[in-house]
Amino acid sequence: MSATEITTAAGTASAVTPRGAKPKSAFAPRNIMLYGTLIVFSIYYLLPLYVMLVTSLKDMAEIRVGNVFSPPVEITFQPWVKAWSEACTGINCDGLSRGFWNSVRILIPSLILSVSVAALTGYVLACWRFRGSEVFFGILLLGAFIPYQVLLYPLVIILREMGLFGSLWGLVLVHTIFAMPINVLLFRNYFVALPEELFKAARVDGAGFWGIFFRIVIPMSLPIFVVSGIIQVTGIWNDFLFGVVYTRPENYPMTVQLNNIVNSVQGVKEYNVNMAATLLTGLVPLVVYFFSGRLFVRGIAAGAVKG
Amino acid sequence: MENSIEIKELKLAFGAVTVLEDLNLRVGQGEFLVLLGSSGCGKSTLLNCIAGLLDVTDGEIHIQGRNVTWEEPSQRGIGMVFQSYALYPQMTVEGNLSFGLKNARVPKDEIATRIARAAAVLQIEPLLKRKPGALSGGQRQRVAIGRALVRDVDVFLFDEPLSNLDAKLRADLRVEIKRLHQTLKNTMIYVTHDQVEAMTLADRIAIMKGGQIMQLAPPSEIYNRPVNKYVAGFIGSPAMNFMEGQLEAAAQSFDTGRGLSFSVQGYEFVGAPTSGPVWLGLRPEHIQSGRWADGQPVQLEALVDMVEPMGSDTQVWATVNGQELRFRMDGQEPVAIGDRMPIGFDPARLSLFDKKTENRL
Lengths: 307, 361
Description:
The complex is a heterodimer of chains A (307) and B (361).
Chain A lengths: L1 H12 L15 H28 L3 H6 L12 H8 L11 H31 L5 H10 L5 H15 L5 H25 L3 H9 L4 H9 L4 H17 L2 H6 L7 H9 L8 H33 L4
Chain B lengths: L2 E12 L2 E12 L3 E5 L6 H9 L6 E6 L2 E2 L10 E4 L11 H11 L4 H15 L14 H13 L5 E5 L7 H18 L2 E6 L2 H7 L2 E6 L2 E6 L1 H6 L4 H6 L6 E8 L4 E3 L5 E3 L12 E7 L5 E2 L8 E12 L3 E8 L2 E8 L9 E6 L5 E4 L7
Parallel strand pairs in B: 3-8, 3-9, 6-7, 7-8
Antiparallel strand pairs in B: 1-2, 1-4, 4-5, 9-10, 11-12, 11-14, 12-13, 14-20, 15-19, 16-17, 16-19, 17-18
Helix pairs in contact in B: 2-3, 2-4, 3-4
């Protein structure tokens, strides 16, 4: 006890002598650069969001005054209600809710189908190589470099011939196909990095193709499923092009409907409703990022167990 | 002795690259066979072929008298232990042990009995509910052995199981594996590049090089009578001294041609001795020095070049009539660079190899 006291006393007394942790200055040039850049970029991205938020909470009279940055004098949620359930697109006046539910009905099957097919393909390409599997993978990757526009019309014909054109399932199929290159790449590379001896051990233990996939590979791969899931949810939700090309108006996803509300040329431009509608549409990817960020970290921690 | 494993004319090729060719091997019932060789010699490949994890190009593999060449690993009656342990990270120790049994649809109470038995043998009962991430290296390897144990198989395959452990643990587990073999009396095939593991564990060692078995013999014979220069140089630490020279068959003498010659009377030739160029191999630990050199059949004088004290003994690098020699002496004996000291050895402990074929004479 006394020995510790002596050391501590000596340590404080000789503060000038370099000893222990090196003191750090909060205003070092490095920190100023780092935090300066971070703050500038935060403002750059957050300012439009702020403007949208305050505008959506004002009524039209207040917007006409023209103080874009000032907070609302009187907060009103009327624009949000209108955007969700009353805004008109063409003859329908039931708001964005219709588009929202369409998007959900497109998202869920597309997400499940694309992630599971990509995971399975990646598993085969990583763990059950066959003759020409590398070539197959190469061709698949090539798909990532082909512009969507080139494939738009051929796909219209293919879907028409299959009798899926205009239906929700046609769009699901399109989303699944376009998800393949990048997601298969993700899964394959993740599975390749899993220790090979685990597969050998599982084979000695009598697990087959599906047994290894479901009991060994999937439980070890939560992080990559989360990553793939994020890519798919945001990609499918934000999609506009496929939605407008491959579905009929009654199945239009939220993004297409948002465009139709915001870009309608008739009547007064209701900025507050437009802002609310846009925020509503962007809410899903925002929520996904917000929650999956935590899940992602947890996934990595769970996968970090050394085999 | 009945054969537990029999490998006939095994060939394995990846495209144009032949890894194993015309390999024949018989392993007796309850035998502990070590496959020893440097990396890339095909020892792990051979083990994977026996396990069924690699499809062979040609030849047959029989386990317990059954031709298993086309069978799945799980049907071959083998258990395997891997270098990286290969435990399933998301399952508990119990889950790891029962995974294979569940796949084989073994009844629940039977699984419980077998796990209890294996856990008792390996002393891992307190760990059963833990996940592999919460275990130390030695504990993980014990669980990995347990996974092979619960399968109730006749043959155990070990693929460098101790290579990932630190030196002390390695020595401990080595003894445990030996004890396990004495208790279970299963056939075991053990792949390693560590000659200490090979010498201490094996009933017989198969030394492999370039996909072929160079010598298959009990450890003492591999050590004392290596069949060729490669085996002689591979086994033993520090490595055997080699001298180039000429053998006179009639006089039974050896001459380096650079001022060093001595008699090899007492050496047991494999066939009739013939004169010609040879390699002479002499193990460092077979050279006596100082006062122990007295009475040795061959006596020479060495000049000490370098000294490596190891505590228990001292390794000495010396020159004898222009020939470099390494030898070991008692760690308590004083020795310094530049010392001259008498050394001696017994030709019966030499190894002579033909210069060209490098086979034992």
